[in-house]
Amino acid sequence: MRTRNTADDYYYKGTEYVNIGRYKEALRSFNKALKINPGNSDAWVGHGNALEELGRNTEAIKSYDKALAINPEDPDAWLGRGNGLDELGRHGEAVASYDNVIRINPDDCAAWFNRGISLERLILYDDAVASYDTALEIKPDNCAAWFNRGNALEGLGRYDDALTSYDTALRIDPDDPDGWFSRGHALEELDRKEEAIESYDKALTINPENSEAWFNRGNAFFGLGRYDGAVASYDNALGINPGDSEAWFNRGNAFFGLGRYKEALISYDTTLKICPGNSDAWFNRSITLGHLKRYKEAVESYDHLLNIGPGPANVWCNRGNMLLMLGRNEEAIASLDKALLINPDYPDAWLDRGVAFSRLGRHDDGLISYDNAIRINPGDSMAWFNRSIALSHLKRYKEAIESMEKSQKIIPDDSGKKQNRKRKQRL
Protein backbone atom coordinates (compact mmCIF):
# COMPACT_ATOMS: atom_id res chain seq x y z
CA MET A 1 0.00 0.00 0.00
CA ARG A 2 1.39 3.42 -1.00
CA THR A 3 1.88 5.85 1.92
CA ARG A 4 1.50 9.61 1.66
CA ASN A 5 4.69 11.72 2.02
CA THR A 6 4.96 13.63 5.27
CA ALA A 7 6.14 17.23 5.79
CA ASP A 8 9.45 15.81 6.98
CA ASP A 9 9.78 13.74 3.81
CA TYR A 10 9.39 16.83 1.65
CA TYR A 11 11.74 18.79 3.93
CA TYR A 12 14.52 16.19 3.62
CA LYS A 13 13.98 15.93 -0.13
CA GLY A 14 14.26 19.71 -0.42
CA THR A 15 17.48 19.66 1.60
CA GLU A 16 18.92 17.02 -0.73
CA TYR A 17 18.03 19.14 -3.76
CA VAL A 18 19.76 22.19 -2.19
CA ASN A 19 22.88 20.13 -1.57
CA ILE A 20 23.12 19.14 -5.24
CA GLY A 21 22.28 22.61 -6.55
CA ARG A 22 18.75 21.86 -7.86
CA TYR A 23 17.17 24.88 -6.22
CA LYS A 24 13.88 25.09 -8.15
CA GLU A 25 13.07 21.49 -7.24
CA ALA A 26 14.16 22.21 -3.66
CA LEU A 27 11.76 25.14 -3.52
CA ARG A 28 8.89 22.96 -4.70
CA SER A 29 9.68 20.38 -2.03
CA PHE A 30 9.83 22.99 0.75
CA ASN A 31 6.54 24.46 -0.46
CA LYS A 32 4.94 21.03 -0.13
CA ALA A 33 6.42 20.57 3.34
CA LEU A 34 5.08 23.97 4.45
CA LYS A 35 1.65 23.31 2.98
CA ILE A 36 1.40 20.29 5.26
CA ASN A 37 3.08 21.94 8.27
CA PRO A 38 3.42 25.75 8.08
CA GLY A 39 4.88 25.75 11.59
CA ASN A 40 8.07 23.90 10.55
CA SER A 41 10.80 26.52 11.10
CA ASP A 42 13.47 24.32 9.49
CA ALA A 43 11.40 24.13 6.31
CA TRP A 44 11.11 27.93 6.26
CA VAL A 45 14.91 28.17 6.57
CA GLY A 46 15.34 25.68 3.71
CA HIS A 47 12.77 27.63 1.70
CA GLY A 48 14.79 30.81 2.30
CA ASN A 49 18.05 29.11 1.34
CA ALA A 50 16.58 27.91 -1.98
CA LEU A 51 15.20 31.38 -2.77
CA GLU A 52 18.55 32.95 -1.90
CA GLU A 53 20.39 30.61 -4.23
CA LEU A 54 17.95 31.59 -6.98
CA GLY A 55 18.77 35.27 -6.37
CA ARG A 56 15.34 36.01 -4.90
CA ASN A 57 16.72 37.63 -1.76
CA THR A 58 13.74 39.79 -0.77
CA GLU A 59 11.50 36.69 -0.73
CA ALA A 60 14.22 34.73 1.06
CA ILE A 61 14.30 37.28 3.90
CA LYS A 62 10.52 36.89 4.34
CA SER A 63 11.02 33.12 4.67
CA TYR A 64 13.74 33.58 7.28
CA ASP A 65 11.51 36.02 9.16
CA LYS A 66 8.75 33.39 9.25
CA ALA A 67 11.25 30.87 10.63
CA LEU A 68 12.31 33.37 13.31
CA ALA A 69 8.71 34.12 14.25
CA ILE A 70 8.44 30.40 15.12
CA ASN A 71 11.95 30.06 16.64
CA PRO A 72 13.70 33.34 17.42
CA GLU A 73 16.83 31.46 18.53
CA ASP A 74 17.46 29.67 15.22
CA PRO A 75 21.05 30.62 14.22
CA ASP A 76 20.62 29.25 10.68
CA ALA A 77 17.67 31.56 10.08
CA TRP A 78 19.63 34.59 11.35
CA LEU A 79 22.62 33.58 9.20
CA GLY A 80 20.52 33.19 6.05
CA ARG A 81 18.75 36.47 6.78
CA GLY A 82 22.12 38.23 7.12
CA ASN A 83 23.27 36.77 3.81
CA GLY A 84 20.14 37.92 2.02
CA LEU A 85 20.37 41.43 3.47
CA ASP A 86 24.02 41.69 2.48
CA GLU A 87 23.22 40.67 -1.09
CA LEU A 88 20.59 43.44 -1.19
CA GLY A 89 23.20 46.00 -0.09
CA ARG A 90 21.65 46.37 3.36
CA HIS A 91 24.99 45.72 5.04
CA GLY A 92 24.26 47.32 8.41
CA GLU A 93 21.14 45.18 8.87
CA ALA A 94 23.15 42.15 7.78
CA VAL A 95 25.71 42.82 10.55
CA ALA A 96 22.85 42.97 13.08
CA SER A 97 21.62 39.55 11.86
CA TYR A 98 25.10 38.05 12.11
CA ASP A 99 25.38 39.48 15.63
CA ASN A 100 22.30 37.46 16.57
CA VAL A 101 23.95 34.30 15.22
CA ILE A 102 27.03 35.03 17.32
CA ARG A 103 24.92 35.77 20.41
CA ILE A 104 23.36 32.30 20.06
CA ASN A 105 26.55 30.53 18.95
CA PRO A 106 29.78 32.52 19.53
CA ASP A 107 31.82 29.87 17.69
CA ASP A 108 29.95 30.12 14.38
CA CYS A 109 32.84 30.70 11.97
CA ALA A 110 30.55 31.49 9.02
CA ALA A 111 28.82 34.27 10.96
CA TRP A 112 32.12 35.91 11.90
CA PHE A 113 33.36 35.55 8.32
CA ASN A 114 30.22 36.93 6.70
CA ARG A 115 30.07 39.71 9.29
CA GLY A 116 33.58 40.71 8.17
CA ILE A 117 32.41 40.89 4.55
CA SER A 118 29.50 43.18 5.45
CA LEU A 119 31.72 45.41 7.58
CA GLU A 120 34.23 45.62 4.75
CA ARG A 121 31.47 46.72 2.39
CA LEU A 122 30.58 49.42 4.94
CA ILE A 123 34.25 50.53 4.74
CA LEU A 124 34.66 49.63 8.43
CA TYR A 125 37.97 47.92 7.77
CA ASP A 126 39.23 47.77 11.36
CA ASP A 127 36.04 46.03 12.49
CA ALA A 128 36.19 43.73 9.45
CA VAL A 129 39.75 42.66 10.33
CA ALA A 130 38.62 41.93 13.90
CA SER A 131 35.77 39.76 12.56
CA TYR A 132 38.10 37.83 10.26
CA ASP A 133 40.53 37.38 13.16
CA THR A 134 37.81 35.76 15.25
CA ALA A 135 36.81 33.52 12.34
CA LEU A 136 40.45 32.44 12.07
CA GLU A 137 40.70 31.72 15.80
CA ILE A 138 37.83 29.27 15.26
CA LYS A 139 39.15 27.87 11.96
CA PRO A 140 42.82 28.80 11.36
CA ASP A 141 42.94 27.15 7.92
CA ASN A 142 40.05 29.23 6.52
CA CYS A 143 41.70 30.34 3.28
CA ALA A 144 38.90 32.75 2.35
CA ALA A 145 39.14 34.50 5.73
CA TRP A 146 42.89 35.03 5.30
CA PHE A 147 42.26 36.36 1.80
CA ASN A 148 39.48 38.75 2.88
CA ARG A 149 41.52 39.84 5.87
CA GLY A 150 44.23 40.88 3.39
CA ASN A 151 41.69 42.91 1.41
CA ALA A 152 40.51 44.72 4.54
CA LEU A 153 44.10 45.46 5.57
CA GLU A 154 44.71 46.92 2.11
CA GLY A 155 41.70 49.15 2.73
CA LEU A 156 43.54 50.44 5.80
CA GLY A 157 46.72 50.99 3.78
CA ARG A 158 48.52 48.27 5.78
CA TYR A 159 50.05 46.59 2.75
CA ASP A 160 52.79 44.68 4.61
CA ASP A 161 50.19 43.08 6.87
CA ALA A 162 47.95 42.42 3.87
CA LEU A 163 50.83 40.66 2.13
CA THR A 164 51.31 38.41 5.17
CA SER A 165 47.61 37.48 5.03
CA TYR A 166 47.77 36.68 1.31
CA ASP A 167 50.89 34.58 1.84
CA THR A 168 49.10 32.58 4.53
CA ALA A 169 46.07 32.08 2.26
CA LEU A 170 48.35 30.88 -0.55
CA ARG A 171 50.12 28.39 1.73
CA ILE A 172 46.68 26.85 2.31
CA ASP A 173 45.61 27.06 -1.34
CA PRO A 174 48.53 27.78 -3.70
CA ASP A 175 46.25 27.47 -6.75
CA ASP A 176 44.01 30.41 -5.88
CA PRO A 177 44.40 32.94 -8.74
CA ASP A 178 42.64 35.67 -6.72
CA GLY A 179 45.16 35.23 -3.93
CA TRP A 180 48.09 35.69 -6.32
CA PHE A 181 46.33 38.66 -7.95
CA SER A 182 45.74 40.44 -4.63
CA ARG A 183 49.26 39.61 -3.49
CA GLY A 184 50.54 41.31 -6.65
CA HIS A 185 48.44 44.38 -5.91
CA ALA A 186 49.82 44.65 -2.36
CA LEU A 187 53.39 44.30 -3.65
CA GLU A 188 52.73 47.00 -6.23
CA GLU A 189 51.48 49.34 -3.50
CA LEU A 190 54.72 48.60 -1.60
CA ASP A 191 56.65 49.62 -4.75
CA ARG A 192 57.96 46.06 -5.14
CA LYS A 193 56.98 45.96 -8.78
CA GLU A 194 59.23 43.11 -9.94
CA GLU A 195 57.74 40.83 -7.29
CA ALA A 196 54.27 42.10 -8.19
CA ILE A 197 54.83 41.01 -11.79
CA GLU A 198 55.86 37.55 -10.58
CA SER A 199 52.62 37.30 -8.56
CA TYR A 200 50.50 38.42 -11.53
CA ASP A 201 52.31 35.84 -13.66
CA LYS A 202 51.32 33.10 -11.21
CA ALA A 203 47.71 34.31 -11.23
CA LEU A 204 47.75 34.26 -15.03
CA THR A 205 49.30 30.78 -15.19
CA ILE A 206 46.24 29.55 -13.26
CA ASN A 207 43.73 31.78 -15.08
CA PRO A 208 45.05 33.33 -18.31
CA GLU A 209 41.67 35.01 -18.93
CA ASN A 210 41.94 37.37 -15.94
CA SER A 211 41.92 40.74 -17.71
CA GLU A 212 42.45 42.63 -14.42
CA ALA A 213 45.66 40.69 -13.78
CA TRP A 214 46.93 41.60 -17.25
CA PHE A 215 45.93 45.22 -16.63
CA ASN A 216 47.73 45.44 -13.27
CA ARG A 217 50.73 43.63 -14.72
CA GLY A 218 50.87 46.33 -17.39
CA ASN A 219 50.76 49.01 -14.70
CA ALA A 220 53.67 47.36 -12.88
CA PHE A 221 55.74 47.29 -16.08
CA PHE A 222 54.80 50.93 -16.71
CA GLY A 223 55.94 51.89 -13.22
CA LEU A 224 59.32 50.27 -13.96
CA GLY A 225 59.62 52.24 -17.21
CA ARG A 226 59.43 48.99 -19.19
CA TYR A 227 56.92 50.27 -21.67
CA ASP A 228 57.17 47.40 -24.16
CA GLY A 229 56.14 44.96 -21.42
CA ALA A 230 53.32 47.30 -20.41
CA VAL A 231 51.98 47.44 -23.98
CA ALA A 232 52.07 43.64 -24.29
CA SER A 233 50.14 43.27 -21.01
CA TYR A 234 47.53 45.86 -21.95
CA ASP A 235 47.12 44.12 -25.32
CA ASN A 236 46.34 40.87 -23.51
CA ALA A 237 43.87 42.64 -21.23
CA LEU A 238 42.16 44.15 -24.28
CA GLY A 239 42.09 40.80 -26.07
CA ILE A 240 39.87 39.60 -23.21
CA ASN A 241 37.94 42.82 -22.64
CA PRO A 242 38.17 45.13 -25.68
CA GLY A 243 35.81 47.64 -24.07
CA ASP A 244 38.13 48.45 -21.16
CA SER A 245 38.69 52.19 -21.60
CA GLU A 246 41.31 52.32 -18.81
CA ALA A 247 43.42 49.67 -20.54
CA TRP A 248 43.27 51.66 -23.80
CA PHE A 249 44.22 54.81 -21.91
CA ASN A 250 47.17 53.24 -20.12
CA ARG A 251 48.25 51.58 -23.39
CA GLY A 252 48.37 55.06 -24.90
CA ASN A 253 50.57 56.24 -22.04
CA ALA A 254 52.94 53.31 -22.57
CA PHE A 255 53.24 54.08 -26.30
CA PHE A 256 53.86 57.71 -25.38
CA GLY A 257 56.68 56.57 -23.08
CA LEU A 258 58.17 54.70 -26.05
CA GLY A 259 57.94 57.83 -28.21
CA ARG A 260 55.48 56.03 -30.51
CA TYR A 261 53.09 58.96 -30.66
CA LYS A 262 50.91 57.80 -33.56
CA GLU A 263 50.10 54.56 -31.75
CA ALA A 264 49.53 56.49 -28.52
CA LEU A 265 47.04 58.70 -30.35
CA ILE A 266 45.12 55.68 -31.66
CA SER A 267 44.83 54.35 -28.10
CA TYR A 268 43.61 57.69 -26.73
CA ASP A 269 41.08 57.97 -29.57
CA THR A 270 39.78 54.49 -28.77
CA THR A 271 39.52 55.45 -25.09
CA LEU A 272 37.40 58.43 -26.08
CA LYS A 273 35.11 56.37 -28.31
CA ILE A 274 34.31 54.24 -25.26
CA CYS A 275 34.28 57.08 -22.74
CA PRO A 276 33.91 60.48 -24.47
CA GLY A 277 34.02 62.40 -21.19
CA ASN A 278 37.43 61.09 -20.08
CA SER A 279 39.25 64.37 -19.45
CA ASP A 280 42.60 62.66 -18.83
CA ALA A 281 42.41 61.04 -22.26
CA TRP A 282 41.62 64.41 -23.91
CA PHE A 283 44.56 65.95 -22.05
CA ASN A 284 47.05 63.26 -23.06
CA ARG A 285 45.68 63.21 -26.61
CA SER A 286 46.29 66.95 -26.87
CA ILE A 287 49.89 66.57 -25.70
CA THR A 288 50.43 63.73 -28.16
CA LEU A 289 49.15 65.83 -31.07
CA GLY A 290 51.64 68.50 -30.02
CA HIS A 291 54.48 65.98 -30.20
CA LEU A 292 53.26 65.05 -33.68
CA LYS A 293 53.40 68.77 -34.60
CA ARG A 294 49.67 68.71 -35.33
CA TYR A 295 49.24 71.96 -33.44
CA LYS A 296 45.84 73.02 -34.79
CA GLU A 297 44.31 69.66 -33.84
CA ALA A 298 45.99 69.94 -30.44
CA VAL A 299 44.27 73.30 -29.84
CA GLU A 300 40.93 71.77 -30.86
CA SER A 301 41.57 68.87 -28.50
CA TYR A 302 42.28 71.24 -25.59
CA ASP A 303 39.11 73.15 -26.49
CA HIS A 304 37.10 69.93 -26.29
CA LEU A 305 38.64 69.24 -22.88
CA LEU A 306 37.71 72.76 -21.70
CA ASN A 307 34.13 72.17 -22.86
CA ILE A 308 33.89 69.22 -20.46
CA GLY A 309 34.63 71.43 -17.46
CA PRO A 310 36.77 74.30 -16.19
CA GLY A 311 40.36 73.48 -17.02
CA PRO A 312 43.30 73.65 -14.63
CA ALA A 313 46.21 76.01 -15.31
CA ASN A 314 48.28 73.47 -17.24
CA VAL A 315 45.51 72.96 -19.84
CA TRP A 316 45.36 76.71 -20.56
CA CYS A 317 49.17 76.89 -20.59
CA ASN A 318 49.54 73.95 -22.98
CA ARG A 319 46.83 75.40 -25.22
CA GLY A 320 48.71 78.70 -25.25
CA ASN A 321 51.90 76.88 -26.20
CA MET A 322 50.17 75.24 -29.19
CA LEU A 323 48.78 78.62 -30.32
CA LEU A 324 52.30 79.99 -30.04
CA MET A 325 53.51 77.21 -32.35
CA LEU A 326 50.83 78.27 -34.85
CA GLY A 327 51.96 81.89 -34.68
CA ARG A 328 48.60 82.95 -33.18
CA ASN A 329 50.32 85.10 -30.58
CA GLU A 330 47.42 87.24 -29.37
CA GLU A 331 45.30 84.13 -28.76
CA ALA A 332 48.28 82.49 -27.05
CA ILE A 333 48.56 85.43 -24.63
CA ALA A 334 44.84 85.22 -23.82
CA SER A 335 45.16 81.49 -23.05
CA LEU A 336 48.30 81.99 -20.96
CA ASP A 337 46.63 84.81 -19.03
CA LYS A 338 43.86 82.38 -18.06
CA ALA A 339 46.50 79.92 -16.84
CA LEU A 340 48.07 82.68 -14.74
CA LEU A 341 44.73 83.72 -13.26
CA ILE A 342 44.44 80.16 -11.93
CA ASN A 343 48.11 79.85 -10.92
CA PRO A 344 50.07 83.13 -10.83
CA ASP A 345 53.28 81.22 -10.03
CA TYR A 346 53.32 79.08 -13.18
CA PRO A 347 56.80 79.65 -14.72
CA ASP A 348 56.07 77.92 -18.04
CA ALA A 349 53.07 80.18 -18.60
CA TRP A 350 55.16 83.31 -17.92
CA LEU A 351 57.91 82.06 -20.25
CA ASP A 352 55.53 81.32 -23.14
CA ARG A 353 53.74 84.62 -22.54
CA GLY A 354 57.07 86.41 -22.84
CA VAL A 355 57.77 84.65 -26.16
CA ALA A 356 54.36 85.70 -27.52
CA PHE A 357 54.91 89.33 -26.56
CA SER A 358 58.43 89.28 -28.05
CA ARG A 359 57.08 87.94 -31.33
CA LEU A 360 54.62 90.83 -31.38
CA GLY A 361 57.49 93.26 -30.87
CA ARG A 362 56.22 94.14 -27.38
CA HIS A 363 59.56 93.60 -25.67
CA ASP A 364 58.74 95.55 -22.50
CA ASP A 365 55.82 93.23 -21.84
CA GLY A 366 57.98 90.26 -22.79
CA LEU A 367 60.63 91.34 -20.29
CA ILE A 368 58.05 91.54 -17.49
CA SER A 369 56.97 87.97 -18.28
CA TYR A 370 60.55 86.65 -18.35
CA ASP A 371 61.27 88.37 -15.03
CA ASN A 372 58.28 86.62 -13.49
CA ALA A 373 59.40 83.25 -14.89
CA ILE A 374 62.86 83.80 -13.35
CA ARG A 375 61.40 84.96 -10.03
CA ILE A 376 59.59 81.61 -9.75
CA ASN A 377 62.35 79.46 -11.29
CA PRO A 378 65.77 81.16 -11.21
CA GLY A 379 67.34 78.07 -12.78
CA ASP A 380 65.44 78.32 -16.07
CA SER A 381 68.17 79.01 -18.63
CA MET A 382 65.63 79.57 -21.42
CA ALA A 383 63.99 82.39 -19.45
CA TRP A 384 67.41 84.04 -18.92
CA PHE A 385 68.23 83.59 -22.61
CA ASN A 386 64.94 85.07 -23.82
CA ARG A 387 65.31 87.91 -21.30
CA SER A 388 68.69 88.70 -22.85
CA ILE A 389 67.10 88.92 -26.32
CA ALA A 390 64.34 91.20 -25.05
CA LEU A 391 66.87 93.49 -23.34
CA SER A 392 68.89 93.65 -26.59
CA HIS A 393 65.79 94.79 -28.48
CA LEU A 394 65.31 97.44 -25.80
CA LYS A 395 68.99 98.49 -26.30
CA ARG A 396 69.83 97.65 -22.67
CA TYR A 397 72.96 95.85 -23.81
CA LYS A 398 74.85 95.64 -20.51
CA GLU A 399 71.88 93.92 -18.83
CA ALA A 400 71.43 91.74 -21.92
CA ILE A 401 75.04 90.49 -21.64
CA GLU A 402 74.61 89.77 -17.93
CA SER A 403 71.41 87.85 -18.64
CA MET A 404 73.07 85.82 -21.42
CA GLU A 405 75.98 84.97 -19.10
CA LYS A 406 73.54 83.68 -16.47
CA SER A 407 71.82 81.58 -19.13
CA GLN A 408 75.14 80.04 -20.19
CA LYS A 409 76.12 79.24 -16.61
CA ILE A 410 72.90 77.29 -16.10
CA ILE A 411 73.12 75.24 -19.33
CA PRO A 412 75.50 72.51 -17.94
CA ASP A 413 72.83 71.58 -15.36
CA ASP A 414 69.80 72.33 -17.50
CA SER A 415 69.73 71.72 -21.24
CA GLY A 416 67.38 74.65 -21.63
CA LYS A 417 64.62 72.43 -22.95
CA LYS A 418 61.25 72.85 -21.35
CA GLN A 419 60.11 69.70 -19.66
CA ASN A 420 57.08 67.91 -21.04
CA ARG A 421 53.85 68.75 -19.27
CA LYS A 422 52.80 66.23 -16.68
CA ARG A 423 50.73 63.40 -18.04
CA LYS A 424 48.33 61.34 -16.02
CA GLN A 425 48.49 57.56 -15.67
CA ARG A 426 45.76 55.73 -13.82
CA LEU A 427 47.37 52.95 -11.84
Describe the protein.
This protein has 427 residues and is mainly α. The protein has a domain at 330-427: Serine Threonine Protein Phosphatase 5, Tetratricopeptide repeat, CATH 1.25.40. 76% of the residues lie in helices and 0% in strands. It contains 24 helices and no strands. Helix 18 (295-308) runs antiparallel to helix 19 (313-325). The relative contact order is 0.04. Mean pLDDT is 93; it is low at 413-427.
List the topology elements.
Blueprint: H1 7-19, H2 23-36, H3 41-53, H4 57-70, H5 75-87, H6 91-104, H7 109-121, H8 125-138, H9 143-155, H10 159-172, H11 177-189, H12 193-206, H13 211-223, H14 227-240, H15 245-257, H16 261-274, H17 279-291, H18 295-308, H19 313-325, H20 329-342, H21 347-359, H22 363-376, H23 381-393, H24 397-410
| Count of helix runs | 24
What is the CATH level 1 assignment of the domain at 330-427?
Answer: Mainly Alpha
CATH fold-level assignment of the domain at 330-427:
Serine Threonine Protein Phosphatase 5, Tetratricopeptide repeat
Assess the beta-strand content as a share of residues. under 5%
User: What's the CATH architecture name of the domain at 330-427?
Assistant: Alpha Horseshoe
CATH evolutionary superfamily of the domain at 330-427: Tetratricopeptide repeat domain
Largest sheet: none
String of helices and strands: HHHHHHHHHHHHHHHHHHHHHHHH
